[in-house]
């Protein structure tokens, strides 16, 4: 019996649950995109989510993968990306977190996640989160020197009816070195802020806490407002901005 036959959520055409893009990248940087995809396996029947919400920010980080890939090309760094929607399982949350399998995301109801049994929740973690986690660990192990771990996210310009003015957020957990160094190298005309629009208190730094901090890796969570990376020009602009900010910040840290 194959491994795929043991799974109840992801069918043979759904694999792999996670992938590495530019695996031969030589820069000492590992990019991560936990919310790269809006894909929901056929077995889950769209989770009962209304059609107009299936490609919304609730399902994935709009523009996040495009930005990660563009930044990967500029840095020549690998990207570890999930291939399954965060509505199935949010790979930036531990299995113990209620929000790992959300029943509602802002204004979007997710009927297929309501009232799941422990067995069903465990299957989601086993088939989506664990392959992602294992692939990220294996990718980090392959570097010749300790890499910086940089997660790429996007956020919606309006949240529960409230506009967000911040354009770029640089988030950190216990280790703020890289976030602060990047902030110091931000363009003057960019509204970049530390720990905005989220912070560690929102539970968003799981990947940093799980994979970077135990290894002593420099790390940062990048959040870009998604209306700014909604087309190729916006993606290219922010890939250039982040490439410069990250390169200068890492050079500064190495000089200390």
The CATH homologous superfamily is termed Zn-dependent exopeptidases
Percent range for β-strand residues? 15-25%
- Biggest sheet record: 7 strands, mixed
- Tell me the span between the first and last alpha carbons: 54 Å
Number of domains: 1
CATH architecture: 3-Layer(aba) Sandwich
Total number of helical segments? 5
Q: How helix-rich are the residues, as a percent range?
A: 25-40%
Low-confidence stretches: 1-5
Radius of gyration: 18 Å
Strand order, sheet with most strands:
1-3-2-6-11-9-10
CATH top level assignment? Alpha Beta
CATH topology: Aminopeptidase
Order of helices and strands: EEHEEEHEEEEHEHEH
Task: Characterize the structure shown.
By secondary structure, this protein is of the alpha/beta class. It has a single domain (4-255), classed as Zn-dependent exopeptidases (Aminopeptidase, 3-Layer(aba) Sandwich), CATH 3.40.630. Helices cover 29% and strands 17% of the residues. It has 5 helices and 11 strands. The chain has helices at residues 64-75, 118-141, 177-183, 206-212, 232-255; strands at residues 18-21, 29-33, 79-82, 104-105, 108-109, 148-155, 158-159, 162-163, 168-171, 192-194, 219-225. The strands form 3 sheets. The chain has a 7-stranded mixed beta sheet with strand order 1-3-2-6-11-9-10, with helices on both faces. Helix 3 links the parallel strand 9 and strand 10 (192-194). Helix 3 (177-183) packs across helix 5 (232-255).
What is the structure about, briefly put?
The chain is an alpha/beta fold and 256 residues long.
């Amino acid at each position: 019996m194959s491994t795929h036959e043991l799974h109840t959520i992801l069918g043979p055409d759904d694999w792999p649950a996670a992938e590495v893009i530019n695996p031969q990248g030589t820069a000492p940087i590992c990019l991560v995109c936990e919310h790269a995809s809006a894909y929901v396996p056929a077995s889950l029947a769209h989770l009962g989510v209304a059609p107009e919400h299936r490609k919304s920010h609730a399902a994935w980080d709009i523009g996040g993968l495009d930005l990660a890939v563009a930044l990967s090309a500029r840095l020549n760094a690998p990207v570890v990306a999930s291939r399954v929607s965060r509505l199935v399982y949010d790979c930036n949350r531990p299995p113990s977190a209620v929000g790992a399998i959300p029943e509602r995301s802002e204004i979007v109801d997710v009927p297929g996640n309501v009232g799941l049994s422990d067995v069903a929740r465990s299957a989601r973690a086993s088939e989506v989160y664990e392959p992602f986690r294992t692939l990220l660990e294996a990718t980090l192990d392959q570097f010749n020197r300790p890499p910086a771990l940089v997660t790429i996210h996007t956020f919606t310009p309006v949240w529960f009816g409230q506009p967000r003015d911040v354009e770029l957020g640089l988030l950190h957990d216990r280790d703020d070195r890289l976030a602060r160094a990047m902030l110091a190298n931000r363009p003057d005309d960019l509204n970049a802020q530390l720990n905005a629009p989220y912070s560690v208190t929102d539970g968003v730094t799981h990947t940093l806490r799980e994979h970077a901090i135990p290894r002593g890796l420099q790390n940062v969570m990048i959040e870009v407002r998604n209306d700014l990376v909604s087309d190729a020009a916006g993606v290219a602009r922010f890939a250039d901005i982040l490439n410069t900010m990250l390169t200068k910040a890492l050079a500064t840290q190495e000089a200390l």
